[in-house]
Design a protein that fits this description.
The complex is a heterodimer. Chain A is of the alpha+beta class. Chain A has one helix at 5-37; strands at 42-43, 48-50, 61-66, 70-77, 84-89, 98-103, 109-117, 122-129. In chain B, the strands form 6 sheets. A 7-stranded mixed beta sheet of chain B has the order 1-16-15-2-3-4-5. Chain B is α/β, with parallel strands linked by helices. In chain B, 55% of the residues are buried. Classes of the chains: A alpha+beta, B alpha/beta. Chain B: This is Thiosulfohydrolase SoxB.
């Protein structure tokens, strides 16, 4: 098989684009986390994230998050080109610091939820949600 | 030296339980080569509650041959653990003598020869005899159906499940959960469930729009048996809209939802349940993990992955029972429940040797009644086979190779793909292949055989995707099928690698050339989960191919190299 110069250049561009996306997405999630926490340490407990292990439809993935004592919670999709999904702020009259929503996932990735507590501390929960082609279930 | 059986008893005593498995007797009988119905059914009634479990019947109302897997690999924590032990190692683990009936029923070796000696297994008329015998000893025994019941045969397809429903209703189960039933389409499922004289359960069957429990399926049902308040919680197959066509049941959402399972366990315990049974279609490894995450379940009756285990598996204080598939086995579990606590159990995996267990006359007549309108079509001989046709196993079986050959020749394709389902009875060397036999391995409501073009890269993506459904080290990410079967192409799989790097060395068998990621190949397959798939029905494709062959020749398939097992 022989490639024309033009085809070769196009392939090279394709390869570059393919590797560029995850790197920028990784940077984007780190930026988003840093912007919310200001680089503070995060506890691994105190927040519960409920998400499906495997998405039934990557275009509308239901999730729930709950963090008693939270002032606000952000939801991030670590592998989406734009990781920000939602920020929930809870006022003093909120009955429960919990929320549910649906999100779109570009592919298999971690969903991250971070709560900022009323005392200024942070807690995070993370779960991988798989987006699959499907079929072949026995 | 402490024997395995002593150890099992000891560990149960340590957790304040005493138990016994009926397997010892069965294996001794096997050694004597003396099988009688009384011996197969022999069971010293124990405690105050009896559970009878059947699962994954796949509409096999008549006795069948069914070869158990040769390759059933476990990954992560389940590497080398049951049910991922096969053949001679399985026999060694359970003390099964070579050549015995249990060797034939539970392992793959010498299957064709042993089948001549021990005959077909299963048949719902024989299952009825066993159920009636248990009810004679314990009239209020609970009969629980783990699902995959209304799918998998010619008559089931043509009656949209009605034939199996009629037969099962006559067996009078107490509850059922679901998987392939939903591929009848949500309207038909609702129609059948609406008329069901027993509980249709699934704590994880949710309304897709509102993300709350679906109204048509209760999460659990209470039973008062032997003075004990028992809650049976249903768990449907978690990945239905992913593994099967979601467009056929768009109103429903599933998932494992173990946090909701815990809520249900807490709820029934708060309502006074003294014994909690989970009737599950999760698959064995998923149930094993769920048992370690959810507390308060006494017994999980597992289904979906078609494993038959002669002894329960203990996870914490929960016992897991695996009752096989296709009607080959019935599990009986007797429990001693005292003051809301399981104090002990006795278990037996009862093999349904169809030549040993007398068919129940009433059910036999009912089955024949369902089949009568279709008898001529069912029994038509299409061809013969010179070798054993089987499917079960992580990679290609000979039935799958035959289906892939049919797809490539009838649809003029470079490469064929056939779904890694675990159902489909076996055909012995020299046996006729009837139309019923073909339908038993192909029948489904989305069986169109497509013909399309795929790049080498996309074929690789598909293999990686399906491979991760099977070999992801976390059971919650496993869907419980086997690897997609490939015709016309070889590959190497390293099951220890992560998704994206398991599959290498993809080779087009016709030329011996490596698959080019950028090149386009003609691929024929069936069982696409996409709506609007076009093509002839797979059973017609396979029938034409077998008719053209006359006698089908089975050759060993060496095109998949497995690493890391």
């Amino acid at each position: 098989m022989s490639f024309s110069r033009r085809e070769t250049i196009l392939m090279a561009l394709g390869a570059a684009a393919a590797t560029a996306l995850p790197m920028s997405a990784r940077a984007a999630i780190e930026d988003a986390i840093a912007a919310f926490t200001d680089g503070a340490e995060m506890a691994e407990s105190g927040i519960t994230l409920t998400a499906p292990e495997i998405a039934e439809n990557g275009n509308t993935v239901p999730i729930e998050v709950s963090a008693p004592g939270a002032a606000s919670i952000i939801i991030l999709a670590a592998g989406n080109p734009t990781p920000g999904v939602a920020t929930f702020n809870f006022g003093p009259l909120a009955g429960a610091q919990a929320a549910s929503t649906r999100m779109r996932l570009a592919g298999t990735q971690d969903v991250v939820a971070i709560a900022k507590m009323e005392d200024g501390s942070y807690a995070q929960a993370r779960q991988e949600v798989k987006v699959t082609i499907g079929g072949c279930g026995g | 030296m402490i024997s395995r059986r002593d150890f099992l008893q000891a560990s149960m005593a340590a957790s304040a339980m005493v138990g016994a498995s009926g397997f010892g007797n069965w294996s001794k009988l096997a050694a004597q080569q003396a099988l009688t119905q009384d011996q197969l059914l022999q069971f010293d009634t124990f405690g105050n509650v009896s559970l009878v479990h059947i699962t994954d019947i796949h509409a096999q109302l008549k006795p069948i041959y069914f070869r158990e897997p040769e390759i059933n690999l476990g990954v992560g924590d389940n590497k080398g653990a049951v049910p991922h032990i096969t053949g001679a190692e399985f026999r060694k683990l359970y003390g099964i003598e070579d050549g015995s009936p249990s060797h034939y029923a539970l392992t793959y070796n010498d299957f064709s020869a042993l089948a001549q000696t021990y005959g077909k297994m299963g048949g719902m008329d024989r299952v009825a005899t066993v159920v009636n015998a248990i009810r004679a000893e314990r009239p209020d025994a609970l009969l629980l159906d783990g699902g995959d019941t209304w799918h998998g045969s010619y008559t089931c397809y043509h009656t949209e499940g009605q034939d199996v429903v009629n037969v099962m209703n006559a067996l009078k189960p107490d509850a059922m959960t679901f998987h392939w039933e939903f591929t009848l389409g949500q309207d038909r499922v609702r129609e059948l469930v609406d008329g069901l004289p027993y509980a249709a359960l699934g704590q994880n069957i949710f309304d897709a729009m509102w993300d709350e429990p679906a109204a048509e399926f209760k999460p659990y049902q209470f039973f008062e048996r032997g003075g004990v308040k028992i809650a049976v919680i249903g768990q449907a197959f978690p990945y239905m809209p992913i593994a099967n066509p979601g467009w056929m049941f768009p109103d429903y959402s599933f998932g494992i939802r173990d946090e909701h399972m815990q809520q249900m366990v807490d709820e029934v315990r708060a309502q006074g349940a003294e014994c909690v049974v989970c009737l599950s279609h999760n698959g064995f490894d998923v149930d094993k993990k769920m048992a370690s995450v959810v507390s308060g379940i006494d017994v999980i009756l597992t289904g979906h992955t078609h494993d038959a285990l002669p002894e329960p598996v203990l996870v914490g204080d929960t016992i897991l029972i695996a009752s096989g598939s296709n009607g080959k086995f019935v599990s009986r579990v007797d429990l001693d429940i005292q003051n809301g606590r399981m104090m002990g159990f006795r278990h037996k995996l009862i093999p349904i040797f169809s030549d040993v267990i007398e068919p129940d006359a009433e059910i036999a007549a009912l089955i024949d009644e369902q089949r009568a309108p279709y008898e001529a079509e069912l029994t038509e001989v299409i061809g013969q086979t010179d070798g054993l046709l089987y499917r079960r196993g992580n990679f290609n079986g000979s039935w799958d190779d035959l289906i892939c050959d049919a797809l490539m020749s009838e649809r003029e394709a470079d490469i064929a793909m056939s779904p890694g389902v675990r159902w489909g009875p076996s055909i012995l060397p020299g046996q006729d292949i009837t139309r019923e036999d073909i339908w038993n391995v192909t029948s489904m409501t989305y069986g169109r055989a497509y013909r399309t073009e795929m790049t080498g890269e996309f074929i690789h993506t598909i293999l990686e995707d399906v491979g991760d459904n099977l070999f992801n080290p976390d059971p919650y990410y496993q869907q419980g099928g086997d690897m997609v079967r490939i015709g016309g192409m070889g590959y190497r799989i390293d099951i220890t690698k992560p998704q994206g790097s398991r599959i290498t060395d993809m080779t087009l068998l016709s030329t011996g050339e490596a698959i080019d990621p950028a090149k386009t190949y003609v691929v024929a397959g069936w069982a696409s989960v996409n709506e609007g798939t076009e093509g002839p029905q797979i059973w017609d494709v396979v029938e034409n191919h077998i008719r053209n062959q006359g006698t089908v020749t089975v050759t060993p398939n060496t095109s998949v190299e497995v690493v890391g097992a």
